[in-house]
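Supplementary notes for students who missed Thursday's class. We covered one full example, reproduced here. Read the sequence, then the structure, then the short commentary at the end.
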Amino acid sequence: MNSSQTSSRIRELNPLGLPALLWFLFFLVVPLLLVVAVSLLTRGTYGGIDFKIQWGNFSRVFEPIYLKILWESFKLSSLTAGLCFLLGYPVAWTMATSSGSTRSLLILAMAIPFLTNLIIRVYAIRIFLGIDGPFQNLLTWLGVSFDPFLFSQNKVLVLYGMVTSYLPFMVFLLYAALEKFDFSLVEAAQDLGSTQWHILTHVLLPNTRTAIASGMILVFVPCLGEFVIPDLLGGARTMLAGNLITEQFLKSRDWPFGSALSVILIALLVLIPFAIRRLVAGARRSHE
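Structure (token representation):
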């Protein structure tokens, strides 16, 4: 493309899109470039930054201790996305097949969590399940023996907080796809004698795989960088990628290494959704 064609393309741009383009440049591209630039510098003696270029920050990321943290974050995010799909698909199906008033009530019930701040919701889970909380008092009243620290700051509690926080994202995407679904296909499959399992695996899932993939990405991506939920519900027992980056910036004051971790995490957040979409596109072509 020559310079005249480029200039003509620029002139053809809608001026109404200029504010969005400027917002994208100044609040996304520029900060990302700053993070990349800092990741190539050196930590100062007393914190801060020395403007000396080095690549050692990225080699530290691949040390076993940090790779283990990244792997644990990947496993927890994948498990959260999978559970959100398993729990969200029946909910979305129920919403899509309900009558008008019931459907509105279910949509409102799923939207209510968004009316409350995330930190308040996580604290509510922590208080409800914590020591001397309502749940433990109920178990005591029922005479059930339990370890009071079992429900306080562990990976299972972090997973529970992740699933409850991100489940609506999955449900609403699946509901949007199922609402437009042609249910005559289900009726045709039933007329042909298909079982419920066969209808699910050969009719519903193949026709909603794009929404499923989008929901998995929408849950997986923020979970991989989540630090509030693991910090409040996992405490010192749970160190994930988001917590590690926070520690580097706020406590260790190693901004270059924290930036290098951020760059690696951003690269993963770009590559993994791209790989998922490629897999979904390949599965669609093979199905067709």
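Commentary. The two ends are 36 Å apart (CA to CA). The domain at 61-287 is CATH 1.10.3720.10 (MetI-like fold). If anything here is unclear, bring it to office hours.
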